[in-house]
Amino acid sequence: RGGVGVIDATISHEKGQLVSSEVLDIYSTIEPQQAFHKRIQFCLSMHNDAVKAMRYPPDAHKAKHDLVADEEKKTEEEIAKEIEEELEEDEE
């Protein structure tokens, strides 16, 4: 088989036409691999762009974390006192 753009065919003089004898098997070429590679590159690019867009300032999560830590420091007595106060307010 020849190079790029070469047609493997015979001329049918009786019918006056060119008859291609090539049976094209797309999977014997590198075209599927190239298409797959192009799709993978697109997905990776999209992923990288998304990761860049999600960048946060350093320690942005600490303020929220500190509030949770303060809540956990409450003693059982403080919690019981708060519950008692809420019950008293509900009774009034």
What does the average pLDDT come to?
A: 79
Give, in spatial order, the strands making up the sheet with the most strands.
Answer: 1-2
Strand content: 5-15%
- Overall, the morphology is rod-shaped
Report the strand count. 2
The level of helicity is 40-55%
Please give the alpha-carbon distance between the first and last residues: 97 Å
Order of helices and strands: EEHHH
The low-pLDDT segments are none
Rg is 36 Å
Please give the largest β-sheet. Answer: 2 strands, antiparallel
Assign the structural class, choosing from mainly alpha, mainly beta, alpha/beta, alpha+beta, or little secondary structure: mainly alpha
Number of separate helices:
3
